[in-house]
Amino acid sequence: MSSAWIGAGLALLLLVLTCLHWVPRLPRVAVSSAEIDADFTHEQRDREERFHEQIRPWGYLSLVISLLVPVVLAGSGAVARIADSVPGGWAPATAVATTFVLVSTWAVGLPAAVRSRLILLDVGLATGSWGRWWRDAAVAELLSLLLAVVAAVGVIGAARLWPFRWWLPVAAAAVVLVVVLSFILPVVVEPMFSRFIPLAPGELRDELLQMADRDGVHVREVLVADASKRTSALNAYVSGFGPTRRIVVHDTLLDRDHDDEVVAVVAHELGHVVARDVIYGTLVGAFGAAALVFGLAILLDIPAVLMFGHASGPADPAVVGILIIVAGWTSFIAAPVMNGISRRIERQADQHSFELTQDPAAMVRMHQALAIHNVAALRPRVWRYVWFASHPTSPERIKAARMFAGQRLSGG
Predict the structure, then answer these.
(1) How far apart are CA 394 and CA 346, in angstroms?
(2) Is 400 within a domain?
(3) CB distance 321 to 309 below 8 Å
(4) Residue 306 falls inside a structural domain
(5) Are 245 and 238 in contact (CB under 8 A)?
(6) The whole model's pTM is what?
(7) Where does 164-276 have alpha helices with state H?
(8) Structural domain containing residue 299
């Protein structure tokens, strides 16, 4: 078991070194209440606060359900009983037990998800039919379930083949899987949820392609996603790698008919490409997955942990309950660190957009529009910001744009 400790230490060291090399040192921009009040009307602030007061409890409930339902199912012995009742050997038992935990968790959390959608519909942030929503939810759940079943079968199969060193091949496979998925998911999964059509030839398309060329980013095409069938939120992104890389603009953003704002958003997304954020993020995910595997090996060597999950060892299909618990709680506990990294990455991409477009005023207008249309939190409590915010607030980003404009005017 000492090798599992060594492996965990090495994986965490690689993760930390990658982050130290990758993550920019850009501190949070302090924004006063007066500055927020100057950019957003009383009605806009009141709408945002009421919206979050309504939807926040349902989001917390969904989170609690996702964390506690697997604990209850594993601790009560339900997972072990399901696994024991499945004929055909360990592989079908593992697949059925994994499906039982994840589908049960999804079903228990479904009322909260439905209530959240009702609130989103009421505020105008969600669009489209309930049929489309159910279809999207089912596809997302099936994809997650497929990956989870493959992972669980892989772990338990490795534990049966290599009972004393199973974590080594599993950690290696986890690294490979994270890397492979980062390449194929944008190409394979995105079309399952959106339809894409080429952006019509014209000044905007030419400007986006020319901007990408100036930035040294090869882009195959500019596509428009039919986001309006699901949401009114505004967004754009750069997707894919190498020959598959494309700029994707939501039709909701195009419908505003503010090309300078589209350019500002795309310039931000190009900043992620130039900084190799996807590549470094993939490495962090790969090293994190390896560390998680080694951590699992350490936990599954503790008799009390196995006793809690009613499992005899890592090769027992009943252990899937513990695997799901550890994966969920690890993600929750690591959220402040990962979101802190994400916010710094987003600040750097904003700086790239300022420099590439030399139009910080467009960024100001764009972030004002994003905050209003996406009903973004303008001044979240510190603990919510630290734990759950993957992006700086819109007021922070607006002030950063104005600071850049001021530096440019002063020659700084």
Answers:
(1) 12
(2) no
(3) yes
(4) yes
(5) yes
(6) 0.90
(7) 167-188, 190-193, 203-214, 251-254, 259-274
(8) 2-193+277-346
